[in-house]
């Protein structure tokens, strides 16, 4: 007679059993692998307050401009709009909970709230990353194939947005069904995928998540923009030897400015998320107490900072914003409605205006 196994032989355990195990360890895990000092929790709370406030205002500003001004409604901007929506939702549905937890030094809304927080932040973060990958691929196809962008064809852009959200859901729902789980991380005031449990069930999910939601999109982004940069350099050399039509030259410069904006956005996104990815892998495959709470909370804060950076890049990559600060007039907005984006943004960043006028 075969012996009875104490646990399921299936490496992907029964969801109910898995949830019972996670519930049993939640209280101790929510205290983190250590504890920040009261001053440390205060610093984290201040950072989260800044990120949540300015991330919300910046993304809300961009969304308002999209809705109000027709000239901003282009297919390429639909993908950027998807990034803004996901970042805004992080500021509304995620950051307030971690801010409240940091002010009290502990997680406040229980295991169900922790699972919700981990799921929504993981899903929306992947939406942003996949949207940027789709955006890079769209730019590559448009410019390398010498296609004239159709400002009225939103089909491809909408399909890219839908793909980004469905893809993110496909990779963030499994922990709710028993393949890995969501739980506390760092000092216990934030929640994410369970990076610390070193079981086949958990490690297999983390490897897949890293491969298909980090490595693969990064590869698409780097390949697409590498090809685009090479193409732009080549076309610049060729055009310098030819007499170009004025409108063609203006169009080409506009395309290059858009490309620089998106490349900068991607670079900042990598700067925000790469430390978090490295910390997650070290937590999964390294010794259990390798990373202290102080070390783990920094990458988490950097990742959340992307919600502030993306809309700022979108606004200030417009060259003509500085012209507005010097002229102190809105007369150009009648012929260039897109300049309104820069005008309104100055209300939120007065320091930029002060430096410019000085």
From TrEMBL:
Record membrane topology: Multi-pass membrane protein
Entry's transmembrane regions: 42-66, 78-103, 115-134, 154-173, 203-225, 258-276, 296-317, 338-357
An example Gene Ontology biological process: phototransduction
Major subcellular site: membrane
Subcellular location: Membrane
Record keywords: Chromophore, Disulfide bond, G-protein coupled receptor, Glycoprotein, Membrane, Photoreceptor protein, Receptor, Retinal protein, Sensory transduction, Transducer, Transmembrane, Transmembrane helix
Entries under InterPro entries matching the protein: GPCR_opsins, GPCR_Rhodpsn, GPCR_Rhodpsn_7TM, Peropsin, Retinal_BS
Molecular functions per Gene Ontology: G protein-coupled receptor activity; photoreceptor activity
One of the record's GO cellular component terms: membrane
G-protein coupled receptors family 1 profile domain sequence ranges: 58-314
Similarity annotation: Belongs to the G-protein coupled receptor 1 family.
Protein name: Teleost multiple tissue opsin b
Lineage start: Eukaryota, Metazoa, Chordata, Craniata, Vertebrata
């Amino acid at each position: 007679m075969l012996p009875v196994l104490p646990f399921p032989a299936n490496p992907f355990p029964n969801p109910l059993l898995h949830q019972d195990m996670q519930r049993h360890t939640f209280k101790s895990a929510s205290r983190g692998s250590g504890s920040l000092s009261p001053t440390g929790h205060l610093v984290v709370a201040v950072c989260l307050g800044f990120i949540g406030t300015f991330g919300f205002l910046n993304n809300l500003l961009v969304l308002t401009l999209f809705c109000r001004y027709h000239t901003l409604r282009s297919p390429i901007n639909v993908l950027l709009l998807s990034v803004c929506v996901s970042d805004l939702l992080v500021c509304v549905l995620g950051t307030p909970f971690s801010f409240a937890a940091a002010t009290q030094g502990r997680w406040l809304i229980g295991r169900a709230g922790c699972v919700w927080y981990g799921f929504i932040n993981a899903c929306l973060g992947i939406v942003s990353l996949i949207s940027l990958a789709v955006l890079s691929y769209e730019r590559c196809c448009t410019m390398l194939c010498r296609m004239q962008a159709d400002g009225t064809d939103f089909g491809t852009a909408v399909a890219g947005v839908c793909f980004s959200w469905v893809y993110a859901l496909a990779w963030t729902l499994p922990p709710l069904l028993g393949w890995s789980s969501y739980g506390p991380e760092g000092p216990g005031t934030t929640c994410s995928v369970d990076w610390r449990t070193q079981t086949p069930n958990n490690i297999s999910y983390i490897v897949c998540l890293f491969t298909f939601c980090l490595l693969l999109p990064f590869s698409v982004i780097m390949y697409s923009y590498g090809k685009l940069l090479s193409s732009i350099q080549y076309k610049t050399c060729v055009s310098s030897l030819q007499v170009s039509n004025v409108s063609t030259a203006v169009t080409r410069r506009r395309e290059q400015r858009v490309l620089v904006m998106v490349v900068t956005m991607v670079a900042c996104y990598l700067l925000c998320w790469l430390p978090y990815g490295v910390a997650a892998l070290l937590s999964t495959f390294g010794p259990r107490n390798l990373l202290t709470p102080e070390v783990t909370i920094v990458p988490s804060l950097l990742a959340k900072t992307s919600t502030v950076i993306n809309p700022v890049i979108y606004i200030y990559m417009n060259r003509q914003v500085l012209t507005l600060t010097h002229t102190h007039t809105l007369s150009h907005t009648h012929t260039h409605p897109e300049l309104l984006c820069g005008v309104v943004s100055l209300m939120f960043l007065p320091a930029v205006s002060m430096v410019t006028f000085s």
